[in-house]
Amino acid sequence: MILYFEPQPDRAREYAALLGKEVRPTASLGAITELVNADKTAQLVLLGSGVVLPDALNFAKQMRMIRPSLGVVLLRDHLDVTDLAEALRAGIREVVLPGDVVAVREALARSLEVSRQLGGAMGTAAPAPARPTAGRLITVFAGKGGCGKSTMATNLAVALAGNGAHSVLLMDLDLSFGDVAIMLQLAPERSMVDAVGMTGRLDETGLRSLLTPFAPGVDALLAPAGPADGERVNRDLVSEIIKTARKVFDFIVVDTPPFFSDQVLAALDVTDHYILLATPDIPSLKNLRLTMDMFDLLEYPKDERIVVLNRADSHVGLTPADIERVVRAPIQANVPSTRDVPVSINQGVPLMVKDEAHPVSKAIKDLAVNRLGGGEGQQVYPATAEPAGNKRRPFLLRRGAR
Ligand SMILES: Nc1ncnc2c1ncn2[C@@H]1O[C@H](COP(=O)(O)OP(=O)(O)OP(=O)(O)O)[C@@H](O)[C@H]1O
Ligand SMILES: [Mg+2]
Fold first, then answer.
1. Residues 6+ apart with CB under 8 A from 236
2. Which end of the chain is more exposed for a tag (fewer CB within 10 A), N or C?
3. Range of the domain at 193
4. Per the domain annotation, does 131 fall within a domain?
């Protein structure tokens, strides 16, 4: 059953008839809230293009609190990136043009599928199963600045979440010059520095109070607004945040500065999958080689190092074989170079949100789904072994041993 509200009665009748008998027209947003409260199995709401945006956003935010597994799909007569970004932040799963009825049906079907998966995990359709495993930590790293770490981290987080099928924490460990807030146009009202007062006793509620929601399934833990505050977040606090986040999220994606700080090492030391980025130029490849050497010294597992070549198609006279020879590791993913990346960053909407079929989105989605076990249509909890944090020695022990 799809609960549908459109304030213009003629339009509501016509559109409901077009979509079929699965659709139940309602008289107001308040009526939908009552129906959702009364029916624990309600999974999908369709809001017509006559619903003004602020009302739709407030409704979605409210639903996210009272029924996180409920999907809200919004119709808009014109697709505008600013509206799209706001809709995503409020937790709306899809925004579609009403004239494209096939696309509307597909969006509704996708949302229902996500709700079905979440229903089991969130106790709306069945009691929540015990969480079989801790969240997986994925760190995006490069020894050289500007390789595309933040671009990768933000898009990867959205891809892993698969429209809300998985919960993902995007953590900005570039503590002095973090870009996640600006890239997603999030107001940095809360940041990691607010965790300082909770050191030693950070629990799930404390962690949640620090988060800024971005898109269905994706919450951000932002870097402090200024470099001075960044210094107050020490490695023990980073370890504590990660430990707590593993209990709450399916995936934690860490964005990093281009160097091995103490805080970055705290994350790398308990990372399950490393995304190592380089661009096809000699300084960047040399830095990746040095990073690999450092990883060897630190005994980070080789089979969890995923080397990604960003701007891979830039014609700069290096063949893939040349690159693999310098790096001494296979390139596992190639992300093309395109002006659509800076354009999407300037708009504050990751390409993965704006255009899932874009070659950049496809390359990152492939990594998320086939290499990391995220995305839609996967198990809500990846059936994996215990996380790295439980099986490896702490970094300090290793450092002391050298
Ligand atoms: N595939 C791409 N195609 C075109 N431009 C790209 C691509 N990836 C990244 N860029 C551009 O490169 C610049 C640096 O990207 P980004 O900020 O993601 O790198 P970074 O590694 O996080 O940098 P820093 O080390 O400063 O944090 C941005 O202007 C971005 O638009
Ligand atoms: Mg960055």
1. 199, 266
2. C
3. 136-401
4. no
174 and 322 housed in the same domain = yes
Q: Quick one: tokens of 269?
A: 């030391």
Q: What is the DSSP letter of 384?
A: -
What is the position in ligand 1's atom list of the atom closest to the CA of 145? 25
Residues 61 and 160 in one domain: no
User: Is residue 330 lining ligand 1, measured as CB closer than 6 Å?
Assistant: no
Task: Report the pLDDT value the prediction gives residue 84, as an integer from 0 to 100.
Answer: 84
Q: Token digits for 130? A: 């015990």
Q: Is 337 in the pocket of ligand 1 (CB under 6 A)?
A: yes
Ligand 1 atom 25: residue of nearest CA: 145
Q: Are 167 and 118 in contact (CB under 8 A)?
A: no
Instruction: Give me the helix-helix angle, 359-366 and 149-161, nearest 10°.
Output: 70
User: Which residues lie near ion ligand 2 (Cβ < 5 Å)?
Assistant: 149-150, 179
95 and 49 together in one domain: yes
Q: Is 150 a pocket residue for ligand 1 (Cβ < 6 Å)? A: yes
Average pLDDT of the segment spanning 134-150: 95
Give the DSSP letter string of 210-225: T-EEEETTEEEEPPPS
CA–CA separation, 94 and 382 (whole Å): 25
How far away, in angstroms, is 309 Cα from ligand 1 center?
12
- Residue 285 has which token pair? 């490849």
In degrees rounded to 5, what are phi and psi of residue 305? -95, 115
Write down which residue in 96, 122, 148 finishes a domain.
Answer: 122
The overall average pLDDT reported for the chain is 87
| 99 and 24 in a common domain | yes
Q: In total, how many domains does the chain have? A: 2
Query: Residue 315: which pLDDT band, with cuts at 50, 70 and 90?
Result: confident
pLDDT attached to residue 133 = 57
With beta carbons less than 8 A apart as the criterion, state whether 44 and 115 touch.
yes
Please list the residues that pair with 168 across neighbouring strands: 218, 251
Residues 111 and 142 in one domain: no
Q: Strands 136-141 and 251-255, how do they pair?
A: parallel
Same domain, 223 and 367: yes
Secondary structure (3-state) at 310: strand
pLDDT in tens, 221-266: 999 988 889 889 999 999 999 999 999 999 999 999 999 999 999 9
Q: Are residues 244 and 157 in the same domain?
A: yes
